[in-house]
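Hey, can you fold this?
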Amino acid sequence: MLLRARIVLPISAPPIEDGVVLIQDGRIAEVGRSRDIELAGPEEVLDLGEVILLPGLVNAHCHLDYSAMAGRISPPREFLDWIEAIIAYKASWDYSDFAHSWVSGAGQLLKNGVTTVADMEAVPELIPECQPATPLRIHAFMELINLRKRSPGALMVEEAERTLLGHLNPRGGYGLAPHALYTASPDLLQAASVCAQSNDWPLSIHVAESRIEAEMFRDGRGLMFDWLRKNQRDMSDCGRHSPVAILEQLGLLSNHLLAVHCNYLEPGDAELLGKNQCTVVHCPQSHAYFGHADFQARELAAVGVNLCLGTDSLASTRKQRGMNPELSLYDEMRVFADNHPDFSPEEILPMATIHGALALRRANQIGEIAGRALADLQTIPYSGPLEAATQFVVHETIHSSRVMIGGHWVNPLSAAAQ
């Protein structure tokens, strides 16, 4: 199949006007200008017309099973209020509620141009049962929590590894997600890190997400400290270091780590993350919902951190003009651009594509239009000039008109392969 578009955005190379992409066996065989590529056989030629052709987006952090909570929890006064609210909300749901929510969220991502998602899964049964409902590339991260250390960390990780490897996931991949430093014991965190390294899986952890978390670890006091001590957590790791410094002491900082949020960093934290080639996943709409301090994007990028974008869950989003929000990395890019005008569109778009691919251990496979990459593509109607194409993608409200995964067009409205 040969696709022709007025503009092709490869991401890892400059934009191409009157571009073509040759697809063979579900992969990209060649990309270039129409006049420079000769057909070698009876390829189907499809002229996509006045569109931008770009790779499918890579969502580096999502909780699909919370998608139906969109707009249900009002922005809290304190982060701890939200934790208690979502715990109560989850307790009121049964399995079918989580399953419906998961499938709905997957459909939203596909409609909005995402072809690969890192999904943090709190309900393991959803992994084999819901994935066949979508053509998305799902990287299933098993969420792990042992707040009171009632379960040995090593045993929890072994069980999670067996569960993941026992499920065939040919389009996607696997990962482990110890929830956070305050909900996972040191032995669980270290066992998960060893497992991720040995399997070459990414490891996702919520890090320094809230002010009260940072205060708890740094000062050994505050709302979260009191709440967790009351809930029988061992608080001996508090009062000395930042969450990032604790992760370094535990040996968890590496290029396998997806440190999610990192909203409250102490001096030297960014350098630690950069030195160890860590990924930081920023979720701009969730960040705005909680009213967190300014995100240190430029400081992180300057020290070599692989900076990615994620949607987080819809349980931490506001209604928009009276309507429930959807999972959309385009919305995340637009909010990030508004909050960080010092970042150019050419810096922002890779955060939703090739940087996510690197974080998920799939560099050169997804998030770009290049030779041998998987043919995960999308089109966006566009009639403007070549030099404004990337700015249009980042700044405008967008829905994809067509989405392709592995060389096959899919229907973004029903999330079913055509």
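Oh, and this one too while you're at it.
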Amino acid sequence: MKGMKWYVEVAAGAVATFENSVPFFVPDDLGALHGPMSGTVDLPLHLDWSQSSSYDLSRPNRLRSFYAAVIREAGSEQDLADWLNRGLLVREWCHLNIPVIARQTWERAHPELNGRSS
């Protein structure tokens, strides 16, 4: 899977914050996302270093926390492919608590996430 790494540049005169300066990955093709759809999943330390890194995907709040963690913390395109599932991502997208800049960038690359067609 080929993906793009996005770095957000802070405009002149704007204040740099953690949210607007952290790089994150966006896949070129949502179809390449083949992660788990059910069960209990334990994220590796590089994606979730909390004491709650085990996620029961049948519980909506845990599923959404899982997806948000992977989107925020993915260190490679492979992380996205391994842990996210296209169908679940599209279904849960509007419920995910992710940085605004990440949401905007993913939606620009994949308009189906916000209900627009390309």
